[in-house]
Write a structure and sequence with these properties.
Layout: H1 2-18, H2 34-52, H3 54-60, H4 65-86, H5 89-121, H6 124-130, H7 135-156, H8 159-174, H9 181-189, H10 194-209, H11 214-223
The structure holds 2-acetamido-2-deoxy-beta-D-glucopyranose (NAG) (8 copies).
One 2-acetamido-2-deoxy-beta-D-glucopyranose binds at residues 104, 107, 158, 160-161, 164.
Signal peptide: 1-18
Protein name: Cell wall mannoprotein 1
Keywords: Signal
């Protein structure tokens, strides 16, 4: 699954490069933008990283030598492309800005999840309902919420972050609930985003304790980072 999605994104990335010089908006395909280039760099980076990790490579390919050779060949091309792209300082600084925006967006989302968890733990009715009156679960949520509060306090004390979150919120509101395409595109570009990590930490936690709703888990995942 992961393997085929990697290939899918590789194919996409290659397609983007192939169209790199054309303005393909009119043909209905996505135009090459700074965002798409930053995203591409991030996929190329992942590919190069994968190819250099023999353990991971064997794991992802189930030790299929054909697939391994294929990935290594693609990674070699990717590496060349990366070198070229990295030499463009304009692009590099644009990507840094985009990555920072994606990171901030992630942090704002995390704050929301943490706040939801804290609110849930503070509402006996809602808590009993969510935990289906299971005292073990109720206690577990309360324990997580205590940690969530600590994390939330630390994040809230960062006025740079809270100001950024407020402005993201108001820009989203002014778009009347329309999904901020730019934000989601840049978030997608930040492959190692904290939300993604929180989600995987959350699924680990879920496997371990069989907990609850996704926001509780994502918030909990945040605390495991
Ligand atoms: C080419 O792309 C740019 C930026 O995406 C856009 O502003 C412009 O209208 C496009 N031109 C054509 C002919 O599609
Ligand atoms: C290689 O990948 C494995 C997981 O597949 C990971 O545990 C390990 O840290 C990676 N090694 C390096 C050098 O990144
Ligand atoms: C290895 O992968 C190649 C290419 O995807 C495939 O054609 C071949 O059947 C695979 N070999 C084994 C032993 O699974
Ligand atoms: C560098 O990247 C920018 C986009 O960030 C692009 O407009 C410019 O053409 C690139 N320069 C070169 C030399 O490729
Ligand atoms: C607690 O949760 C219940 C059920 O979800 C909700 O109806 C109620 O308004 C909440 N109470 C407070 C003080 O938020
Ligand atoms: C309560 O939840 C815990 C932890 O998820 C679970 O192990 C236990 O079986 C549940 N108890 C009941 C009575 O459902
Ligand atoms: C505050 O948040 C901003 C934006 O996410 C971040 O760049 C900065 O490092 C944070 N400051 C502290 C002290 O954590
Ligand atoms: C705002 O969104 C609502 C539905 O979410 C819609 O009914 C309304 O027409 C929108 N207003 C504008 C100005 O787009």
């Amino acid at each position: 699954m992961q393997f085929s999605s990697l290939f899918f994104s590789l194919v996409l990335a290659t397609a983007v490069v192939a169209k790199g010089d054309k303005n393909s908006t009119s043909t209905g395909t996505k135009a090459v933008t700074d965002k798409s280039m930053c995203k591409e760099m991030s996929s190329l980076n992942q590919l190069v990283k994968l190819a250099s990790n023999e353990t991971k490579l064997a794991d992802k390919t189930k030790n299929n030598a054909t697939k391994i050779a294929d990935i290594q060949a693609k990674a070699s091309d990717a590496s060349t492309k990366l070198t070229t792209m990295s030499s463009n300082t304009t692009l590099m600084s644009t990507c840094a800005v985009i990555d920072a925006a994606a990171k901030t967006d992630d942090e704002c989302q995390s704050m929301k999840s943490l706040q939801k968890l804290v609110s849930l733990a503070g509402n006996d009715t809602a808590l009993a309902d969510k935990a289906k009156n299971n005292q073990t679960k109720i206690d577990a949520i309360k324990g997580l919420a205590t940690k969530a509060q600590t994390k939330l306090d630390a994040m809230t004390s960062n006025s740079t972050l809270t100001t950024a979150c407020d402005s993201i919120k108001s820009s989203k509101a002014s778009k009347n609930g329309t999904k901020d395409a730019a934000a989601s595109a840049s978030a997608a570009g930040a492959s190692a985003s904290s939300t993604a990590k929180a989600k995987s930490a959350a699924s680990m936690l879920n496997a371990r304790v069989g907990l609850l709703s996704s926001f509780v888990l994502v918030a909990a995942g945040m605390m495991m980072l």
